[in-house]
């Protein structure tokens, strides 16, 4: 299983080693396996000269058990290095992602190509497939990005939801195991202190996710010192309050019987998730650092590592990156058993395909992240002069339903704002403990977990999760939304009440900086549609962006009808929605998004009729899509050397790229009726027209010297994209 | 107490009213008081034609008790309309801020000028002092902005910490009550579902905050429907797991004895916080909507309100905004008692001032938010050629300690990264249950609560809280950081590891969009210092910005020494740190922040010596401060019509305002050593020099037509600032 021939042991056992073996209640090989993991973790961090040796050394016994194949009688996971994306693999999430040396070691021992011995030696180096925290897009066998604490365990809740839903939907009485995997997590106290995990685990308890087993590395140590500095709550009691089964294992360093029994119990309990509180010692085996914060986030040092190896049975104190033949053979055997399980599953799936071709094909399409044929055929079109204007959240509802009827992979819901967010799929039932086939999720008032759970559902496969709240409360979920973008998970965020236009609820609920926060984030689509046609484009962009999350921003209040809106043009991110009158370059360009577009159209018409200022209006629903167009198209829409005024009821920060002057927010909003707020803050057509006129006059005074916003070299991706 | 003469009752009691009174275990006046609150809430929402009547109607009995003065034998709060900022008032936080009609009514009944009957009638209207959610800066008597769920209860934890710390610091054996107030909270299930409240309450239990009493409005209803949709955990058990005393009150609609006893019990229990789970009915009294989600967030309707009034004892179904004389008199009496308590406290404080003039004066200074004289005198200066370069986080530590020794109001800590964030005040002890006089807080891995607790501490008064984590994890805390900015709370955020330069931990930990997220936020200082001198400016800006939070961004790795850095110049937000050689306008301007400044200096020197490109380097530690300078200064630093290249190891989004081209991030980072990353992403001096040269050549090809970035009208604050 290793890329180098196993090292032959030639050293003599130390007294310490003998005594460790003597007190160990289990086979010598088991102990040696676990010790080998510990030593490898210490070696990797030492070679990288940075990283976290303590947690892997303490958690090695858990990893050992979780990597024992079910099919060989172990209690652990079935998975396959030959097909890391095998649908029914048992998922594993290392929620304490800083312990990732452990994960890479286990992947190495199981034969995953991204974790060769050379890659273990390249731990945390630029370009390696063994980065400082687990990255799903970088390392095959890693399911999600973890490291930001609390994300992993919350992702795992999403994976368990996905598995339960898909099992309920696609399994049959004669094929009960098409989707039947379990999800395992190792997490530390950091993950449990984070609010996001409380949100996710409360929901997991409510939903009775019996396919989720969490091993809590209770090592009593945080970065600052003992957990008694800040974390003295009764975790067992809290998780029982959530409706979990909580089991306690007092020791894993001297034998695995208790942990094995606990995992068995967790697997047997199918009506609630299980938390196993495992008492461990951080940096186990380190004579001077075990049980101390000092082994959390720094290399142990060469001499300490030698001391570790001299104390742990089966290790050679003088060798690094050493995996003895018997150890390698053991894990190779476990991996082979896991792969056998996959092969057996595939044979079974072939029969399923014969018996239930429709279900099987749909499942294949879903796991391949392919859109159904004609996915966008039912998207509605707004007919000017005939259809009634409405809020863009109602338009979002129409589009969501138009695509959802064909795409069962769209599953999601709201953080307790279903009606306000207009995100109910008509006729769809709730995903609940008693109805796992339902596709609407009641997330509760838990925005951060909602986003992380959606990430987990996407990571599971076969899913296009959507989730919803007020745009302002994206600020509660940003930690997880960023993980969507980083992990390349095409989660769809429906964010309504997208400006001060939400009105009376006031500045606590009115987003100002949020659009810019999201636009500044790499690999994130932000779409703010001006009407139904642009909303159809938003859904098309979102669904096509399998590896990019999309935020669909919607108004609370109705927008006026637009004569020249276009789904196809909106797909380009920006387009001329009202051309200037007559020939030649316009005198003024207004560029706007969402609910400000129709006001700009009104302003432009007034400028033309009252002042003969030939004004163009550009609707720019998606900057990211616009930036992907070629330069000539972009210039044809936004010439750059024509006075350009941007209008968005949101922070003006970031708009200097596109405009010479901005009508935007520089303060927080206020509580009051929408139209009064729009006048107060200058987003009414009259003020826009006045400012447009001022802008034209300003440059006239400068003898027409309009700085050309397009006369800039593009230094984007100077050295190429990172990934 | 009302601005209008009390309305005389002329109607006849209905059967419903008689029966309500008959079953009520308490005085008729008490019931009438509570019913009056209910009716006023329904009236306010009806008149506003938007808002939340259900929670105030259900919570009215709690409010009634909390507004009964301690000094008159009640169990409630002592506070004073005559001096809403009286230091030792019992604090009240309405964590379910959408129920704010309730708070405004109680303030009205207590004689607070901002809540006159006219203001109750102007509820949720533009410019009123009764906005749609409570805003501390808008309404006297409101302590914090609530509405974003979970913030209020977390703020209250901060208030309780502040009270406990100040009490331990300033009370004496003979003056035990200089600071001795309690903090009361009403919250709903939404607040308890949010992760932030779990974080804050776990810490509150750990700290044994016996001065905190939370009334949980357990009405079993969320916006989407029954709480059984998503929230079935055992809240009592969870809070007991946190170490709280949890009491249960099954009914408050038919009498207050149980709740009164529970509050008494909560006040007696001084070693742990108390949660009182109060079973209520949302929209109590509404014949068709009581107990239903439909009365959560919409007016009841005129006929339903009439029906409510005809059912509730003491009300006239045909009158709106009606407060009978006896009701007004009762609350006026309570308010007077509260004010008496203040007067007595003031007399006591006068004696305290005589006995302990030093303590008393310091406390006054603190509550006045005045800096100690010479507050900045000890800030260090970096001497080029003599002092050793270091990371800016170490510089931050030096500056923090330089100001902290003189400013005891600086109290705070880290989310379990004390050493990494370099935020330990030397010699300071921890604030713990047994050591409330300590000023270092161990927040645990709880970023969101940390920020909200800091807000609460600031709101309490006498405090300049600071808190720390990695800059990337500001994304976890953004909901509360925004509340700092909105609420005008000068919290100091120390955010280290501020770019891809954190290195091996990789993209999950490397901020990219975070600086721009924060810069797009109104009323938020973002300072990224390039060396010790600029860091001293950062602390000076932060401390002087009493009503603006400041984020101090710090590097993990050392920065090279800068010859011309200046604390005074850095205070202006941007300045020339390396002038171009010779006379006349420069050929090129490089503008950078933090760890990129010295690289730009190196690049500029190379451009001069190798290509005779006369290059100016501008250091721009704080855009907000720079924008406050007059135009001539800004132009003297950044001419705008000279090719300008910005260099920041963060998203280039937002930099188009300042530069023609950007060296910035457009993707997430990677795991690897810092210097390799800086080369990979183009932030090394060599690449910066190359791009600078390219930029100069680009405009040469355009015959020197450099678009003038300053040739734009300023439309900032088009219609004036909101507040």
From TrEMBL, chains A, B:
The keyword Ion transport does not apply. Thiamine diphosphate binds at residues 98, 147-149, 190, 219, 296, 473. The active site is at 447 (proton donor). InterPro entries: THDP-binding, Transketo_C/PFOR_II, Transketolase-like_C_2, Transketolase-like_Pyr-bd, Transketolase_bac-like, Transketolase_CS, Transketolase_fam, Transketolase_N. Its cofactor is Co(2+); thiamine diphosphate; Mg(2+). Mg(2+) binds at residues 189, 219, 221. This is transketolase. It comes from Discostella pseudostelligera.
